[in-house]
Amino acid sequence: MSVEEQAATFVEARSAAVGFPDYPGALPVDLDQAYAVLQAEIGLWPDRIAGWKVGRIAPPLVETLGEDRFAGPIFATSIQQAGGDNDFPAIANGFSAFEAELVIVAAADAPADKSRWTVEEAASLAGAMHIAVEVAGGPFAAANDLGPLTTIASFGGNNGLILGPEVADWRSRSFDDIRCTTTIDGTVAGQAAASAIPGTPLAALAFVLGRAARMGFPIRKGDLISTGAITGVHVVGIGQRCEADFGESGVISCKVVKARPAAVR
C-alpha cells in the first residue's frame, strides 16, 4: 500500500468518525516515512492548519529516531473555546486520550527558511499562553500502543483542541508554579507542574518551529502551539467525564462524546 493510499485510509476514517484496528499497509520505520503519511493526510484534509500539537518521544527511542518530540497539525474547525461543560469528541473504535496542556500563541510569523530554533529564540516568538485540553487520538485504535511513528502517521495523534483562559503574567512566573490536576470520572489521574514538560513548554515551541518549517508549514502569527501533556496521556472512552484543573488559571471540564462525521459537524 502506497503512502497516498495509507493517508487516504486515515482521512476517510477520520471524516466518517469510524475507527479501525489494523494499520493500513506496512508500518513506518522512521520519521521520514511517518511524516510522509502525515504530509499526504494534510494535503487531503479539507481544512486549514491553525496550530500544532507537540508530543514526546520516549528516551529509549530518541537515539534511534534522532528527535525527542513529534508534531501534528491542529485543524481550524477542530478548535473550540472552553465553556462550562465541553464536548470531547472521541472516534468510536479508535483511540482517544485526554491531555491537559499549555498552549502558546505565536506572536508573529516565523521565517519560512529557519528550520532550527533555540529555546531563547523561540521565546521571542511566544505571545499569550492559555490552559487547554488536547483532544488526542484518531481513528487507528492501536496508534498509541505501537509508538510515536504510528501516532505521527495517524494525523499526528491530534483530533482537536479545547482552548481555555489565558495564563496571566506567565513570563514572570516559574513553570513550577503553574500546576494541573487531571481527574477522570472524579478520580485523580495525574498531578504535575508545567515544568514536567522536558525543557519547559518553550522547548516544545522551539521544536515545532523547526519541524513545521521543514514540513513546509512555517508557524504563522496566531497559530496555537499545544506544548505537551503535563499530567500524562489519559486514555478515555465515550461517556466519561474529565477535568483539567489549573488552579487560579482555570478549569476545563469535559464529557467524552461520540465524534460525529465531518459532514454533519
Task: Give the mean pLDDT.
Answer: 97
Question: What's the CATH H-level superfamily name?
Answer: Fumarylacetoacetase-like, C-terminal domain
Gyration radius from CA atoms, angstroms:
17 Å
| Through-space gap between termini | 30 Å
Strand residue content: 25-35%
Q: What's the tally of helices?
A: 6
CATH topology: Fumarylacetoacetate hydrolase, domain 2
Class from secondary-structure proportions: alpha+beta
What helical percentage do the residues reach? 10-25%
Please tell me what the overall shape is. Answer: globular
The largest sheet, given as strand count, sense and whether it forms a barrel, is: 8 strands, mixed
Order of secondary-structure elements: HHEHEEEEHEHEEEHEEEE
CATH architecture: Alpha-Beta Complex
Please tally the β strands and state the result: 13
